[in-house]
Design brief:
Elements lengths: L2 H5 E4 L5 H11 L5 E5 H7 L2 H8 L5 E7 L3 H12 L5 E5 L4 H17 L6 E5 L7 H7 L6 H14 L4 E3 L5 H8 L4 E4 L18 H7 L3 E4 L1 H4 L4 H18 L7
Parallel strand pairs: 1-2, 1-8, 2-3, 3-4, 4-5, 5-6, 6-7, 7-8
C-alpha cells in the first residue's frame, strides 16, 4: 500500500450490491479503502461487506453516522465493530455521554471478536450545510467554523480518534486538536468537477495542504467514463501534495 492509496476512500454510493461490487472489482487493485453508506447498507444489510470483500475490498469505512441516545449508539457501534470494518462514524451532536459510551464499546466489541479496533470518528457539521442552513434552519448561533471546532474538541476529549469534517475546516481543527487527531474530509472535487450537493468543497491537494488525513471521493471517480483512470489521476494528485507538503506525511 502506498501512502497515497492509504489516504483515499472511494464512496460506493449505490443502491444495489451488483453495482457496488462491479465498481469495487474495478478499483480494488489500487489498494484503496471503500465507503459503505446508508443507502447501500440499508438496501443490502451487513452481508454487503462480505460481497465486497469477495470483489477485492480490504478496508471499509462504514459511514452510517449513528445518532441516538447513548445506549442505542453504543450497541450499534459494538455490533459494527464485530463486522471487521476499518473505520466507522457517529454524530458528534449526540453529545459527550454518547461519544464516551461509543468509544468504550468499540474496543470491547472488536476485542471480543478478535478483531483490530476500528478507527472511530465523529461527524461535526455536514458538508451539505452552509451558514444559512446552520443558523436559520437549525438554530446554531455559532459560525460554522466555530461549531466544527467545538464539536471536534469535544470528540477528542471523549476518546474518539478524529472527525469527519470538510477540508476548508481542516486547518483550524488541526490547530485545535493536534497532529495525532484524524481528519476525514468528504466533499473532495478535482479541479473542474461538478459540485453536486456539496456546499463546502476542496481539491485533493488543497485538502492535504490544509491538514486532512483521509479524502472521501465518490462521483468524480465512480461516475467517470473511466473510473480506473480517474482513480489513478486522483492518487497522483494526492501523492504530489504529500511530496510537497512535508507536514502531511504523518497519516
Amino acid at each position: 500500500m502506498t501512502l497515497s492509496s492509504e489516504r483515499l476512500i472511494v464512496a460506493l454510493d449505490f443502491a444495489d450490491v451488483a453495482s457496488a461490487r462491479e465498481m469495487t472489482s474495478r478499483l480494488a487493485t489500487y489498494d484503496i479503502a471503500f465507503k459503505v453508506g446508508l443507502e447501500l447498507f440499508v438496501a443490502q444489510g451487513p452481508r454487503v461487506l462480505d460481497e465486497l470483500r469477495e470483489a477485492g475490498a480490504r478496508r471499509f469505512f462504514l459511514d452510517l453516522k449513528f445518532h441516538d441516545i447513548p445506549n442505542t449508539m453504543a450497541g450499534a457501534v459494538r455490533s459494527a465493530a464485530k463486522e471487521g470494518v476499518w473505520m466507522m462514524n457517529v454524530h458528534a451532536s449526540a453529545g459527550s455521554a454518547a461519544l464516551k459510551r461509543c468509544a468504550d464499546e468499540l474496543t470491547e466489541g472488536a476485542g471480543s471478536s478478535g478483531l483490530p479496533r476500528p478507527i472511530l470518528i465523529a461527524v461535526t457539521v455536514l458538508t451539505s450545510l452552509d451558514e444559512n442552513a446552520l443558523g436559520q434552519e437549525l438554530g446554531v448561533a455559532r459560525p460554522i467554523e466555530q461549531q466544527v471546532i467545538t464539536l471536534a474538541k469535544m470528540t477528542q476529549e471523549c476518546g474518539l480518534d478524529g472527525v469527519v469534517a470538510p477540508a476548508p475546516d481542516a486547518r483550524a481543527i488541526r490547530s485545535a486538536c493536534g497532529d495525532a487527531f484524524k481528519i476525514v474530509s468528504p466533499g473532495i472535487r478535482p479541479a473542474g468537477a461538478q459540485i453536486n450537493d456539496q456546499a463546502r468543497i476542496n481539491t485533493p491537494s488543497g485538502a492535504i495542504r490544509d491538514g486532512a488525513d483521509y479524502l472521501v471521493v465518490g462521483r468524480p471517480i465512480t461516475q467517470a467514463a473511466d473510473p480506473g483512470k480517474a482513480c489513478e489521476e486522483l492518487l497522483r494528485e494526492i501523492g504530489q501534495a504529500i511530496l510537497y507538503e512535508p507536514n502531511a506525511e504523518k497519516a
